[in-house]
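ARCHIVE CARD
Drawer: 12
Card no.: 0347
Subject: one protein chain, sequence and derived structure
Cross-reference: see card 0346
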Amino acid sequence: MHESHVGHEMASGHDKHAGHSVAMFRDKFWLSLALTIPTLIWGHMLPNALGFAPPMFTGAHWIPAIFGTALFAYGGWPFLRGAVNEIRDRQPAMMTLIALAISVAFVFSAAVALGFPAMPLWEELATLITIMLLGHWLEMRSIAQAEGALGELAKLLPTTAVRVQGEGSGEKTQDVPIGDLHDGDTVLVRPGANVPADGVVLSGTSNIDESLITGESAPVEKAAQAKVIAGTVNGSGSLRVTVTGTGDRTALAGIMRLVAEAQKSKSGAQVLADRAAFWLTWIALGSGAVTFAAWMLSGATLATAVERLVTVLVIACPHALGLAVPLVLAISTTLGAKNGLLIRDRRGLEDARKLTAVVFDKTGTLTLGQHRVVGIRTTAGLSEDDALRLAAAIERDAEHPVARAIVQSAADRKLEVPAATNFTAIPGRGVRATVSGRSLSAGGPNLLAELNAAPSAELEAFAADAAAHGQGVISLVEGQVVLATFAVADAIRPESVEAVQQLQAAGIEVVMMTGDAQAVADSVARDLGITTVLAQVLPEGKAALIQKLQSQGKRVAMVGDGVNDAPALVTADVGIAIGAGTDVAVEAGDIVLVRSDPRDVPRIITLSRATYTKMRQNLWWAAGYNVIAIPLAAGLLAPWGILLTPAVGAVLMSVSTIVVALNAQLLRRARLS
């Protein structure tokens, strides 16, 4: 997102900037400052205060009027146009107050220049416009920086790709625009280059930096059949990738859509702040009218009454109040995106701080959703790695899911699996093969019965315990000797234990919900330290169980994969969908976890609490400022010689806005883990 076209959908209170830009306010500020300096030098306020006489020449006394008029037309135009839009929409707000203040000051000063006996307000008008332009420039820079994550994401995509045609000696490469890529194309990703499209590695090995997409800090190893994400950065290896998604169908485009939608969505606190800003505008208008009337009735001059009116209108602008919440939410949204937390609806982020219970779907959320070897017992003299290495060798050519679990478990441990020969599948029993001259078999109880192989008491007890927990049992056999027994089940994610512990330490109840049998569910829950288990739950029954927990007065989050968990995600107070790395277009739920890491759930709660703290601080500051500032501007302390000029009012209002903006920026320092 270029700074000259900042997205201003952050809040209705900031529609005042529609059609404006950071660069425009910057340029208007500097030129207005240049016009303000002569206005002050040849005016009356600065010479009287500093005791100097400005150089005089023919027409010098017209400098404040001429330059002040130019400032009103040039520097004041954004505020005048914004006021017209607000009045047309029947939503008078801060632009209306600013426009009214500078218009009153201009008309009054013009009347003085034409002969009305009073002191003009050209200097107040000039400084007011200049300071207001500075405040808006700084505010829009803050907003642009907060929303800059979209621009950074957009920059990740290269403009061209290296398309590969042919194979072997006949292979040809051609640089093409990424818009010309189609599904099924093969592209070459050279070392250090950005991946041009979502795809699957066809050949080559490398490490890819996915930190800006998934938040994963460590480079991810990629080899054949591995998925790659558009915009990620290739390491030192060279990859050939088959394209599976381009343009708007890439994970990057999905992330950008979700961030953009989140920037537009409103939280309850933001709606409250917008309503408060609306009413503060009317209070300011009423206060200005009362102030003007009171000063006129007290016998003050028209110039004094007008100056008080202008000061009240300026200092009461609900600028800080309008910025307090939107800027914090914009920063929290982008901070979440950088950490793999995609916020689809800001209300979900806001409500996360109030959670008292988190319900996890088991399969694919707390577990990998893929079977692995979860336990091994061996006979004396055989290590677990050696047993797994031998079992993987003979299971490598088998098609059974349990065989794939053993092979993948060996790969997870980075074991070097020897070659097998004479592979034979034994239907209904298992497999047989020769490994390093040894005739080995692997299978379940039917295989042991056929071979008349009796496991040792230790292995038999291990197998019985695994079966009681709903785990599959596979044995490795040589002749009639059972060498090892493997327990196979849906493996628990390595991060799940830590996630559960963090939530429980924060006083949040953790519930596991699954369609699996009670024994399987209890086994996983026991390993994770979860005491509340809801097993054998059908997909259509999950939402009802969420409602039951809510009826007990609990604020509930549901964490699931967004497919069969969609009704439960929508029913929960906060729906958290597992994005599975690249599947970020999850329609159900308020927040998407790109990394599928359960530890991101406590991170969401941490971000929610930090965001709420910043919003509360900003709202207290903005509201408290106006409670004190409006009476001062009206002249409450005038009997003691304390009167604020319009210029001082503009400074105080701008300082208030800057304080709110700077406080919001401190949210970037929040540690989510």
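Annotation on reverse: Residues 1-16, 581-585 have pLDDT under 50 and may be disordered. The chain has 24 helices and 22 strands.
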